[in-house]
Amino acid sequence: MSVVVGEQMRLGLIVPAAALLALSGCGVADQIDANRAVVRSLANYKTCLAQHPQDAPPCEAARLTYEADQNNAGRHRDVVD
């Protein structure tokens, strides 16, 4: 009898833990994608600034995309060097 009770208790702990892990995994993947979008849009913005060092207006769309990606990723706005 004690083996069955022990097995039930173990399953009672494992199943909820596995369910929590599976549910939190979706959020992790979304956060990774959001962080990748920030890195990609920052690179695009820096490339534009390098191509137009004296003329920032052509880079406005890239800057806005970068800021939107930061907001989507839940980051504070970073200062671009």
Q: Which regions contain 5 or more consecutive residues with pLDDT less than 50?
A: none
Termini, distance in Å?
68 Å
Proportion in β-strands: under 5%
Order of helices and strands: HH
Identify the overall geometry.
rod-shaped
Computed CA radius of gyration, to the nearest angstrom: 23 Å
The number of strands is 0
Structural class: mainly alpha
The average pLDDT score comes to 79
Descriptive overview:
With 81 residues, this protein is mostly helical. The protein contains two helices and no strands. The longest helix is centred in the first third of the chain and has 50 residues, at 2-51. The mean pLDDT is 79.
Primary descriptors:
81 residues
Topology, pairings included?
Layout: H1 2-51, H2 60-73
In brief, what are we looking at here?
This protein has helices at 2-51, 60-73. The chain has 81 residues and is mostly helical. The relative contact order is 0.11.
